[in-house]
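Regression check, NAP case 272:
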Amino acid sequence: MKTIVITGASSGIGKASAKFFAAKGWNVAATMRHPESERELSELPNVKCYELDVTDSATITSAYDTILGDFGKVDALFNNAGYCLFGPLELSDEEQIRNAYDTLIIGLTLVTKKFIPHMRKNRDGVIISTSSVGGLLTLPLTSTYHEAKYAVEGLMEGLSYELYPFNVYCKLVEPGGIQTDFWNRSLVMADGIDESDYGKQAAGYLNQMAQPVSDSRASADDVAAVVYEAVTDGEKKWRYTVACDDFIAFRRSMNDEEWIAHIGQMYSGFGV
Ligand SMILES: NC(=O)c1ccc[n+]([C@@H]2O[C@H](COP(=O)([O-])OP(=O)(O)OC[C@H]3O[C@@H](n4cnc5c(N)ncnc54)[C@H](OP(=O)(O)O)[C@@H]3O)[C@@H](O)[C@H]2O)c1
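Current build output:
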C-alpha cells in the first residue's frame, strides 16, 4: 500500500485529497495544525492525523519521525498548506508578511527538504506542491501571495534538476478559483484598507471574488482528482492546472503592459 503525506489537511483541498487518496486505497498521513480537532479523517481506516505546523520545525521533525515509524515508506508528499494575505503591501505589517512567507515559502521548503533524503534513498517519490493560477499571473492587492506562489514555482522547477536523476518527480498543481475556506476563514486582511487610498480597488476586487462567482468555482474534490492523477500517472509532466486554463490563455493573449492596464482598469484601481 502506498503512502502520501499531505500538509494543510484540515480543510479544503488538503482534506479532499486525503479522502480521495484513502478511497483509492492509499495510506494517508494527514498533517495539520490541530489534529485533536479533526473528526472526519480520523474515522477513515487508512488515514492517520499528525500535528504539523509548517512554520514550526519541531512539528515537521516529529511528524516526519512518527509517519516514517508508522508507515515505513513515503511515496508522495503533497505540500498544500497555505493562505492569502490580502491588501496593499504598505498596509501589511511586518509580522503579517513574515507569517505569510513562513507558511507559503519557508515552511513548504523545509517540509520538502525533510522528505528528500528518504525519497532519494528509495529512488522513488513524487513531491507535489499547490501553487495557484496566481503563480502564473497576478491580480491586485495580493502581491505577497503572488510573490510566494511564484517562489513555489521556482523551487519545484529548480528541484526537478536535483531529483529527477533519483526518480523523484517534482510537480505543481495550479488551481484557479476553488470553493474552500480560502476566501473567508483563510484570508488574512491588512489593516485599514477601507479607509485607505486602496479602498475602492479592494472593494472591486472583493466583490469580484464574492458570491456569484463562487457558485461557478470548481470544488476541492476536482483538485484532489488532479492531484491523484499527477501523483500516479508516472509521467514527468510537472504542471497540472485546475479550472484556470481559459484564464491563463487570456493572460497569454496580451503582453505584460496590456495585462496590467486591463486588470487595473477592471478593478478601478488606477487613477483613484
Ligand atoms: N481556494 C482557492 O481558490 C485556491 C486557488 C489556488 C490555490 N489555492 C491554494 O490551495 C491551498 C489550500 O487552500 P484551500 O483552498 O484548500 O483553503 P483552506 O480550506 O483554507 O485550507 C488551507 C489549509 O492550510 C492550512 N494551513 C494554514 N497555515 C498553516 C500552517 N502554518 N501549517 C499547516 N497548515 C496550515 C489550514 O489549516 P488550519 O485549519 O489550521 O487553518 C488549512 O488546512 C493553499 O496553498 C492555497 O494557496 C487555493
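Comparison notes: The chain is about 45% helix and 15% strand. The domain at 3-266 is CATH 3.40.50.720 (Rossmann fold). No diff flagged against the previous build.
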